[in-house]
Every structure is written in C-alpha cells, then in structure tokens.
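To the structural biology subgroup,

Please find below the input and predicted structure for Zinc-dependent metalloprotease, which we are adding to the shared reference set this quarter. The sequence is reproduced verbatim from the submission form. If anyone notices a discrepancy with their own records, reply to this email rather than editing the shared folder directly, so we keep one authoritative version.
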Amino acid sequence: MNKQFLVRHSMRGAVYLLVVLASSCATKKQAANQTLTLKTTTSPSGTVSTATVGPPKKDGIKKFSDLITDKIKADSGLFNTYKVEGKYYYEIPDSLINREMLVVTRYVKTPGGLKTFGQQYGGEQLNNQVWKWERHDKQIFIRVPSYSIRADSTTDMYQSVKNSNLDAVLAAFDIKAFNKDTTGVLIDVTDFYNGDVTAIGLSDDVKKAYKISGVDNTRSYIDTIKSFPINLETHTLKTYRSGESPTDNSNGAVSFELNTSMLLLPKMAMKARISDDRVGFFGQRQTDYGTGAQKAQVTAYIHRWKLEPKDPIAYAKGELVEPKKQIVYYIDPATPKKWIPYLIQGINDWNKAFEAAGFKNAIAGKEAPTPKQDPEFSTEDARYSVIRYFASDVENAYGPHVSDPRSGEILESHVGWYHNVMSLLRDWYLIQTAAVNPAARKARFTDEQMGELIRFVSSHEIGHTLGLPHNFGSSYAYPVDSLRSKSFTDKHGTAPSIMDYARFNYIAQPGDGVTHLYPQIGEYDLWAIKWGYSWFPGNKNPQQEKEILANWTNERAGNPLYYFGRQGTSIDPRLQNEDLGDNAMKASAYGIANLKRILPNLEKWTYQKGENFSDVSELYNEVIGQFYRYMGHVSTNIGGMNENFKTYDQKGAVYDFVSKARQRDAALFLNKQLFETPLWLINKSELSKFDNGLVLNRIKALQVAVLANILNPSRLARMYDNEAKNSNKAYTVSDLFADLRAGVFGNNKPDAYKRNLQRGYVENMKNMLNTDVSISFPGVTSTQLAAFGLTPINIALSDIRPMVRAELKKIDAGLPKGGDALTAAHFADLHLRIKEALNPMRPVINFTPLLMRGINTDEILKENIDGSYRNCWPRTIIE
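Predicted structure (tokenized):
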C-alpha cells in the first residue's frame, strides 16, 4: 500500500498510521511434548503469522491403506479429506501442488461483550492470505507468496525479482502416505488447525485486548472439514487462555468458533485493469521491474468482479448482454424478515449502473437457501457473498471485499450490517429533513420508511464491494438552489454518486415541495461502473485498454457530474463528508434555517407516553452535531485548494487556491453564525428536560473547536504559500486575523458565551506563540503530508510567530476598560493572559498534539487492509 494511504485524520486531530501486527507462540503443552520449530511469515497484506511445526517423524511413509482403510469414506472435492479416530487428513493431488489458493478466516460465533475494533461478530473477517502447497522430499510446505514486486517471465528482470521475493513458509507437514495410484500425497492437518496459528486464528489486537497466552487444546477441537469442488471449509472451536475475558474471568479462557475457507484461484488470473486517479476504485499496487522503464515502476490495478458477456458478438454490437457469471449476494438467514426485501432491492439497484457497462442482470440479491433447500450452504463459505446481520448496538454498516492479489479480481464479499444503524438513520433523517418532511416528525418510523433508508445504505455498501470507494467530491456537482427544486431532486436525488457522504436533503425549505430527500445511484456511479466493468473485445492487453479508458475520461474532464474527489484530505472544500451543493456558506445557511425550525419541536415530535426524555436529549445533541458539520464545511474554504487530478494531455492546474472572495465569505459567515453566539441553540424549554448545567460548556466547546480548526498551523501555512504566489489576490493570514478579531472582540459588553470564546481565542494564539512544534512524521514525505491537509510548517521558523505576536498586541490595545465588575475582571484577565503570552514566565510544555487540532473534525476512520471503510456512518462528536 502506498504510504500516502496510511495517513488518516481523526476527531482529535491525531494521525493514524495503519499498522497490522499479529503473532503467536508455542503453548506449554506443545513444548513439553516435542521439539518445535517456529516459522514466521508475512502475508501480502502484511499480517505476520507464526506456525508451530514439528520435525520430520522417524517412522517414515506408510501405505495408504494402513492409514485410510476401505471402510473410511472420503469427503471428495478440492482435496479428498478423511477423518480417522479424531485425526484429519488431506489427500493432495499432484495437479494442485503449487496452485495458488485464497484462504479466508472468519468468526462463526463470538463471546458476548467482545469490543475489539473491526472484529467482534460472527461473519467478520480475521485474515486472508494466499497459500501454495509445495512438495519437498518427504514433506509438504505451505508457502505464502508475496505480490508486492513482479516482472514478466519473458523479461530479463524475472530471475532477479524471484531471487529477491522468496515465498515464506507458513507450515510444514510430513507426508504420511502416497495415494493408491501415487498421484497424490496424504498429510495430517490436525495439529495445524488445532494450533495457535495467527493466519487462521485470532489477530494480535484481540490477543492483547484479552491477555491471551495461547490455545488450550483440552478445550478446543476441529468441528468439521468439508470438501467442495473448488474449496475446503474448516470449522473449528478454539479456546484461548485469557487473563481478561469479555464475559467471565473465572473461566480463565475465552472461546471462539472460526471458519477457514480455502478457495482455489483460477490458473489464469483475470486480466488486470490499470487504475486512474480520476476515477475512483479500490485497488492494489506493486512494483513492476519488467516494464522497460528506467526506474522501478509502480503499477496500480483496480479491484473489480470478473464480468464477461455470454454473447460477445451481441455485446460488441451494443446490445445488453447477461454476464457468464452473475454477481450474487445472499442475505444472512439471521436478518429480520421485514428488512430482507429492502436489502435485496439495494443490491439490485446497481443493475442500472451495469447496463452502462453493457450488462443486464449483472447483479442479484437473494435470500440464503434453507438447510432443506441446500444443506451444504454456509454463510462462512468463501464461494458466497453475503450481507451478514449483527445483533449489535454499533451504529454502522460496512462493505469489504476479498480480491485476487495477482489481478485485483474481487472473489467474494461479506457486508457487515449492524442492527443499530437504524437508530442513526432515524436521527439523521429527522434532523436533516423534518423541517420539510412531516413523515420524519416522530420517534419511530414506519417499516416502509425505515426500509427505504435501509435500501439506501445497502446500495452504498454494495458499491464498496463492487470496488468503489467514497467519492467525496460528487455532491459539489449540484448547485445549491437545484436541491430546492422538486423536479430536479425527483430525477437526481442529492448527489451524482451514492458513494458520497451526501446524506439527506437539509437544503430544501418549507414550501419548495421537495419530497425526494435522499441519495440514489447517480450519473457518476453509472460512469464509474462503465469505466471499470466494460468488456473490450480483441484480447487487448491492460495498456491498450488503459488508452481507451483514458480517452473516455478525457471526454468527461471538467464535467462535475463525473468528478471523483478522494477521501482523506482537508485541502479541498469540495471534498467533504455530509455536505451538499456547490457553496458551503449558502447551503449551511439553509441548513441552519431548518435547524431553527426543528429544535423547538423536538419534544412534541418525539412524544412517547410513559417514556423519559432520552430521545429529546439525543436529538438535541444531533442538532448541535449537524450545526457543527456546517461550521466545518465552511471552515475548509479558508486556506483551501482545489484538487483536480490530470494527465499531461490535459490543460490547467492540478492545484489552485480557493478564491479570495470565497475565503472571506467563509470567515464572515463564521462570525455571523457562530462567533455571534447562536442563542437559538439555547432552547430553555427543551434543555430543561435533560440539561443539568452544561449549556455554557456545550457552546464553548462548539466555538473553540471550530476556532482551533481555523487557526490550524497547516491551514495558515497554505495561506502564506498563497500570499507568496499570488500576493494581493490571496486571502492572507493578516486578513483572517482582522476578520476574526472583529467577530470575536467586537462587543464591549461580552456575555458569558462571548467571554469563553475570547479566552479560547487568546489561549489558542498563546499556544502558537510559545509551543515549538513542527509537522513531520518518520518515513512520510512533505508532499504526502500536504496531500492530506497536513501542510508542513515549522512554527518557530515561520511567519506565524511574528503575526501572532502582532495580533495579540492589537487585541490587547483594543480591549476596553471599566464596565461592571465581571466584565472588568474579564478584560483584566485577558490583559494578563496576553502579557504572559508575550513574556512567558514559566517553562513552555512542548505540546505536540497542538499541531493537529481541528483537522477535518467530523469523523474517525480506519481503513481495512482489503481497502474498505469500516466506518461509513460516523456521528459527529463535540468534546
């Protein structure tokens, strides 16, 4: 994975680096019984696994019939498997030696109370690797190939790459016997699947969380090993010795049911499609030494399902053709029956996008077969893609996928659906649309209402499993006032892509008549599927296809409907989550007008006889959170830059600054809507039902958090860069400080809210003046940091210090004298704070986290190894 994809922003402004570690050790019982070898390997995804492997036995190879008598029936399939007196054997045919196989391990059942991020519920993935079974003398090895570097076998570099890319050994097995016609070997896999092998067991973070010391073999067993034509399914129960059980510490252990699927990969990998930064797809990168380039060439391939037309001739004529193999998702049998039709519809909605790529009936959602209909069906089977339903209070859903590392072919997906995502949908739909939508003005939605919201989320998550990441730039394509048009929204929804975080229409005003209030699969989604899934006749190679696709992309360049804006950067104000329209100030003003209509009615709209006021409290916090989002959308314009990825054959800038006028509009908007105390948020009638003396703190937290965001050193660094490049055409730091001073200190009789804000402003400036920090991270270049909004700057050596010092002096000189006792005390305190800032009397603490304060404060994200987002539905948190 490219380094730049390892940087993620969080609410508190920390930078998360994706670190994947896993390990295991031999148990005491194992150590007592045999001499052991620990073999440690690293998977293509970076997961480290340690397998406990015994030395070759001295008793030699036996006859097949000595171990597997005629009375023992084989479970025939990929490998024939046998169970003999509690031992499990694989019969591996010579034809499958050195064939690549995808191995996916998932939870089947987990203990209650498990709270490890991303690994909690039955159906969730623990690990995936590619294995090759290799024979060497009297042993069989599991090799774990790496695909990070490559060279075509016909090139001069092929042997050199092989020498530098040795496949690691995960485990070794003695050959117990040859089969009857000597076309295969028999091995005992009992100890392997019963052992503590990270590749097919718990990850390191789970082990650390529950102080796990190893597997207790006396309380563990292999339940079943089932063989199918192209896969093997191994179901185990593992009990781990645990010092901190999530359920009951008196057991000294924690138990899990796990399933490991081993799926034979195609002998011939699917033809890869080369990625393009201008069209959003998850993908994979590898360094290719066989391209003929005069450097190590990094090549990126997209992740996509393999779709080929049943009738290539008809397809070539432009007719819609069914694929040879349809993409099918099954709904978990544990899903409440009333939601199944909506989940299926969310899947099937993607068929119109696949029609843009020339395919009909390309995708289908289906109910999982019952045991009577198909006794072999399992939701853990890697051959099947499933929407798994979790009985959980987590407010989330996510759409991962597992792909072939050789080509990017998506092989299966297990969408994670948490029951409590419905709570989040109810809150957002009410807070964002109730001003114009009477149907949302209630504590409990009808099944039909909730079903339609579930359908929307289902489509979004299925989009991820088709290879599509979030497109944060999509919603910018629609003018703000178009979202007040009934005819426009009926046709287009709220954004050209359902993969944006463009939730519900908060812009439409009472009287507009708008009734279609949520996103749908739109113009961009059709384009992305056409780009990623169109089939080209003539056996073209990836480079030839790339040239055709580049021409398609160039034809659409400049059209905002087809714009892809990546997630993870705070540079570009177009690329924001939860926003709508092409002007954040205008859109947010409409949104605030609606919040003012909604807030006074919360108690009335959520009335439930005999219930407490928890709903009022929850929705009041949602109002504050929504208002905070609007402030974040506006703030990003200050010091903002537009990012438009281009190739050499396109004219114009890739990066250009947001106009001076729009940056100033943003600052003045914040002065009016936030720094002039938003008294409308202080609804005494509503607050009296749940607020126990926190309203001052709520408003202070809101104002100071946004202020810290605006004064982020990275933002100021871009503003200085803009001034250096564009002089009087730039909105400068001096301009910003003057505008903020007018908004924060323009009142000679500040109330309690304004006093809090003024102290917060001075303290923020004091920290910038006296805290020696710089923005840098080991192994991450300045260019990579800047790409995510962490524009490097050393405050001590920059123009920030002189400007802050001058600004504090201006504030100090402008403070009035006199007034009532509290006001006079406040201004005297500000004088002392400023004096201390300019002449510090105590040692300054190097508070490094300062440099991250306020960075795109709207979400906490963690990206999976497989390139899918765990948290698609983050709530806003104000602390």
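Summary notes: The first helix runs from residue 28 to 33. Residues 395 and 421 are 4 Å apart (CA to CA).

Regards,
Lab coordination
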